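Case study B.
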Amino acid sequence: EIVLTQSPGTLSLSPGERATLSCRASQSVTMNYLAWYQQKPGQAPRLLIYGASSRATGIPDRFSGSGSGTDFTLTISGLEPEDFAVYYCHQYGTSPWTFGQGTRVEIK
Amino acid sequence: EVQLVQSGAEVKKPGESLRISCRGSGYTFTSYWITWVRQMPGKGLEWLGRIDPADSYTNYSPSLQGHVTISADKSISTAYLQWSSLKASDTAIYYCARHEGIVMVTATPDFWGQGTLVTVSS
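Model:
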C-alpha cells in the first residue's frame, strides 16, 4: 500500500501567516489522485482539495494545492481563525486508499 | 441538500455483533459509492472499504477484510457496516462518506456523515 508521510506534525503559526504543509508518498500517486481534508474537533473531515490542485466547492481561494508524483503541498495563504485544525492528505488512486497521519495547525 | 445521516452511538461488549447505518438523502443514492472510514481515539483516518449501492459491489482494505462487512439497501438509500464479533480494538468513530466512482479525479469523498462512535468494552 502507499504510505503517506505528512510534515511537520504540528505547525504553530499566527493568524494572517502563511501555512505550508507537506505530504510525501512512498510511491507515485496514480494520476495525482491526491486530496486534502480539514478536520476540526468533533467534526467529520471536510474536503478542501482534490486531484492535487483543484479546490472543492465552496473552499476559499486562500487554500491551494500543488505537487505531483510523490511530493504534494497544501498552502494556506493567510490563516484565518477558523483554519486552525488538523489537515490530512489522502491518496485515492490506488487501492487500498490511504491517509497521511495528519498535520495539526495550531495558534502560536 | 446532500446529507448522510448515521445511526447513533453504540456501547458493546467484546464478542457481540453490531450493525451501524448510513442513510443518504438529497441525491441519487445509486449514483455514488459509499466508503467507510475509521478514526480510533485521538488518531488519524483509516479507510475500511467501499460499496457501489447500484449493485452492492464491494472493496475492502486488506487489513480489515473478513472482520467487517459492508452492505447496502438501495430501496431505502442506506449503507451498513457490520461486525459479527467485536473486539476492544474496534473502539472508534466510524464515518461514511460518498464518492463519485473509483477511477476518476472526483472519486475522493466529498460529503461525510456525522460519525458513529462505537465503544467496545467489557
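The two ends of chain B are 40 Å apart (CA to CA). The remaining cases will be described in the next quarterly update.
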